[in-house]
Amino acid sequence: MSIDPARSAQDxxxxxxxxSQWLPFTPNRQFKREPRxxxxxxxxxxxxxxxxxxxxxxxxxWCCNAGHCxxxxxxxxxxxxxxxxxxxxxxxxxxxxxxxxxxxxxxxPADLDHVFFCNSGSEAGDTALKIAIAYHRANGEGTRxxxxxxxxxxxxxxxxxxxVGGMVANRKFFxxxxxxxxxxPHTYNRAxxxxxxxxxxxxxxxxxxxxxxxDLHDASTIAAVxxxxxxxxxxxxxxxxxxxxxxxELCTRHGILLxxxxxxxxxxxxxxxxxxxxxxxxxxxxxxxKGITSGTVPMGGAIVRTHIYxxxxxxxxxxxxxxxxxxxxxxxxxxxxxxxxxxxxxKESLFERAQAxxxxxxxxxxxxxxxxxxxxxxxxxxxxxxDLVPLEGLPGKRGFDAMRAAFHDENxxxxxxxxxxxxxxxxxxxxxxxxxxxxxxxxxxxRIG
Length: 449
Ligand SMILES: Cc1ncc(COP(=O)(O)O)c(C=O)c1O
What we know:
- This protein has helices at about 30-35, 60, 70-85, 95-105, 120-140, 160-165, 170, 190-195, 210-215, 245-255, 275-280, 305-310, 330-345, 350-365, 395-410, 430-449; strands at about 40, 45, 55, 110-120, 145-150, 180-185, 220-225, 255-260, 285-290, 300-305, 375-380, 385-390, 410-415, 415, 420-425.
- By secondary structure, the protein is α/β, with parallel strands linked by helices.
- The chain folds into 2 domains: about 10-65 and about 350-449, Aspartate Aminotransferase, domain 1, CATH 3.90.1150.10; about 75-345, Type I PLP-dependent aspartate aminotransferase-like (Major domain) (Aspartate Aminotransferase, domain 2), CATH 3.40.640.10.
- A 7-stranded mixed beta sheet has the order 4-10-9-8-7-5-6, sandwiched between helices. A 4-stranded mixed beta sheet has the order 1-2-3-13. Strands 11-12-15-14 form a 4-stranded antiparallel beta sheet, with helices on one face.
- It is globular.
- The termini are far apart.
- The mean pLDDT is about 95.
- The chain binds pyridoxal-5'-phosphate.
- Pyridoxal-5'-phosphate (PLP) binds next to helix 5.
């Protein structure tokens, strides 16, 4: 194409053939043949380019807990953009980030009262792991560098996160990963737990595997254990009753920091500000992202207990206490969005709403039991997943077909992970819409069966 040099770059029409963007975690060739495009959103709906409403059964990607394009949040972001667009958080600060940190600390359990901001769940995971290792060093225990994750865990896509994570496909392409990492077994056992509402009775003993790892490596080499209190991305695996308590006891006994990755469970998904609160187990570090801004502006962070923060406050006055941070840590737009989001959660009692709706959601998802394509169903809070019977020799194909059919035929967004389909609607959903989600999904199953 020849371009008239007199025309500005902006005048040149750019073809939008969908080719240039390489989408994450997506089969790009298929997508570009049959795109799933969204052009606008409001409350519990997205809209396709032709104006068709799409029921959002996944709060975007587990993040839009307050629903979409809520006026209060939109206005806060707009106002902030015109007032303070950016302020460095290295050696400087701005009031809203401090205010948001205080508000988050107030929602966190016990003495988890210092907040380190970043921009995503992946960064939050890596931040927490680095803080854990650096904490032990600051504490005179520099041999504690080993990190323990869990099979079927997801902590984002940084090298730290995939190293402690337990999703095979996210790891196998990327070389040897971090050294000095080990994994607990995952807690899912279909024979023992199938079709359980909430926490399964079976599985608390699997936490004792941590003792085996301590016996193998010695506690003096272990910095931290990181788990999702409810594993989300591998298909909503609620913790067995007593499991998190046992992990807590073992970590305390051996001086190991316990990190809860609450990127999904934080801010209402399980009916509380944190899963730690719901399960009555206090970790040493909590990571969060997604729901803090209801998905509107990227933000994440790590909340740490007082003694962890204090361990870094020992050097001379001019010396940096933690050599870690991101240009956009505590970004003004994210901070403004976070404050408006927390206001909305409180004003509309959305965490309590999730609690009240949990039994309705649980009954609705379990009503799919008995369908010939369904192998298991799990649920906790306003999160649930169904495992589909895989197609012989084609793992992931049935899940993918279900996600496609949900979008194209039933105008509904669901989340696919292999042959599992997850549901995590915005917390503003109501009973009728919950019923609608599973009625539509039953039609999807009938269609692809
Ligand atoms: C538990 C957990 N940790 C971390 C992440 C990564 O978050 P992000 O995609 O914002 O990096 C996710 C994303 O789904 C998550 O579910």
